[in-house]
Design goal:
The chain has two helices and 23 strands. The N terminus and C terminus are likely disordered. It is rod-shaped, with a radius of gyration of 51 Å. The longest helix is centred in the last third of the chain and has 28 residues. The strands form five sheets. Strands 2, 4, 7, 8, 10 and 13 form a six-stranded mixed sheet that branches. A five-stranded mixed sheet has the order 9-16-18-21-20, with no helix packed on it. Strands 1-3-6-5 form a four-stranded antiparallel sheet, with no helix packed on it. The termini are far apart. By secondary structure, it is mainly β.
Length: about 325
C-alpha cells in the first residue's frame, strides 16, 4: 500500500474519532452473567464491534455447537452438567486480539412447600413452616430468602432454607390462604418461586344451645326440643332424656320430638355435642302440669251434681211427708 495513502487514511480516522485515536475493536458475550438451571440448555452469543476480524470464535472446555453470522458467533450448550464453567470468546483484528470472559453458573431450585406440624386446633399453639431447597456452584451457599404471609398471620421473612411461624389457631382462620415466596439471588439475577395452602383449623364443639317452644307443657301436648352447636368437623349429638318412652330424633339427631307427651316426659333434657377434638353440653328443664280438659266437662259435672242433689232432696221430702201424715178419726190402737 502507498505509505502516503495509509498515513492519509490514518489522519482522517484520527480527525473523525473523538480524542484523536481510533476506537479498538471489542468482543462481548451475551448474557453477561449466564445462569441456568442444572441439566437444562443454554444459548450464548459472542458479538464483535468490528467486521474486519480475521477470527471470531469460542474457547471452551466442552464440545462447541452453534452457528455464526456477520459479526457474531453463538455457543449452544444442550445440557448443562457442570456447576461452574469458564467461557471465553476471542476476536482477531489484524495484530490486535480481544478476549471476553464470563463464568457460567448452574443452580438447582425446588419450589417451596408449606406444612403444619400436626393439626391446627382452635385455641392451641401451631407451628407453620415453609421450606425450599436450592443448590449453587460450590463452595458458595445459596443466597435464599423465604417470606411467609397471609391467613391473618404476621409476615415472617428469613434467610435460609426454611422459615417458621408459631401462632394460636382461631376458628375464623379456617379456610384462609397462606402463601410462601422463595427468592434465590444469583448475582444480579433473581429466581422466584411461590406456594400457597389453605389453613384448616379444627375446633371442639362450642356455643351449644338447647331450646323448646316453651318450658311448661300440658299432658297430651306435642313436645319438641332442639339442640345446635358450632364445631369443625360438625359435631355429633347425643341426648340424655328423662325417659326412654315414645321419643323420636330428627334433623340428624339435633331435634327430639315427643307426640302426646305425658307427665313422665317432664325433667331435664341434656344435649351432648362431640367430635374428635372435644365435647360440650347444654340442657333445658321441661315441666308438665295437669291434663288438658274440655270446657264442657265442668258443666256436665256441675249438672250431674245438681241432679243428684235434687233427687236426694225430693226423696227426703217424700220420706218426711209420709212420716207426718195424720191418722184417720175413730181408729184406736190395737
Amino acid at each position: 500500500m502507498d505509505p502516503c495513502r495509509s498515513w492519509g487514511a490514518m489522519a482522517l480516522l484520527c480527525l473523525l474519532v473523538p480524542g484523536g485515536h481510533p476506537v479498538p475493536c471489542r468482543v462481548s458475550i451475551s448474557p453477561e452473567e449466564p445462569t441456568v438451571e442444572f441439566g437444562t440448555s443454554l444459548l450464548l452469543n459472542c458479538t464483535s464491534s468490528c467486521r474486519n476480524y480475521s477470527r471470531l470464535n469460542w474457547e471452551v472446555s466442552i464440545t462447541k455447537m452453534g452457528a455464526r453470522g456477520p459479526g457474531w458467533v453463538s455457543l449452544d450448550i444442550p445440557n448443562v452438567t457442570e456447576w461452574s464453567l469458564e467461557l471465553q470468546c476471542f476476536g482477531v483484528f489484524g495484530e490486535q486480539r480481544d478476549i471476553a470472559t464470563t463464568t457460567l453458573r448452574a443452580y438447582r431450585f425446588s419450589p417451596p412447600q408449606i406444612y403444619l406440624e400436626g393439626d391446627a386446633v382452635a385455641g392451641k399453639e401451631v407451628r407453620l413452616t415453609c421450606a425450599a431447597a436450592a443448590q449453587v456452584s460450590p463452595p458458595d451457599p445459596p443466597n435464599l430468602s423465604l417470606t411467609l404471609r397471609g391467613g391473618g398471620l404476621p409476615t415472617s421473612t428469613r434467610r435460609g432454607p426454611s422459615v417458621g411461624l408459631r401462632f394460636t389457631a382461631q376458628p375464623e382462620q379456617h379456610g384462609r390462604e397462606v402463601t410462601c415466596e422463595a427468592v434465590l439471588q444469583l448475582g444480579r439475577r433473581t429466581v422466584n418461586a411461590s406456594a400457597a395452602t389453605v389453613l384448616r383449623v379444627w375446633a371442639a364443639p362450642r356455643d351449644v344451645r338447647v331450646w323448646a317452644p316453651r318450658t311448661v307443657f300440658t299432658t297430651g301436648d306435642n313436645l319438641t326440643v332442639t339442640c345446635r352447636a358450632e364445631g369443625n368437623p360438625s359435631p355429633r349429638f347425643r341426648w340424655e332424656l328423662p325417659t326412654n318412652a315414645s321419643w323420636e330424633l330428627w334433623d340428624g339427631g339435633t331435634t327430639v320430638t315427643i307426640p302426646a307427651a305425658r307427665q313422665a316426659h317432664g325433667g331435664t333434657y341434656r344435649c351432648l355435642a362431640e367430635n374428635r377434638y372435644g365435647a360440650s353440653a347444654a340442657s333445658i328443664d321441661i315441666l308438665f302440669q295437669g291434663s288438658s280438659r274440655s270446657p264442657l266437662i265442668p258443666v256436665v259435672v256441675t249438672l250431674a251434681v245438681v241432679a243428684v242433689l235434687a233427687v236426694l232432696a225430693i226423696s227426703w221430702w217424700l220420706y218426711r211427708a209420709r212420716g207426718w201424715k195424720p191418722m184417720p178419726d175413730g181408729s184406736q190402737p190395737s
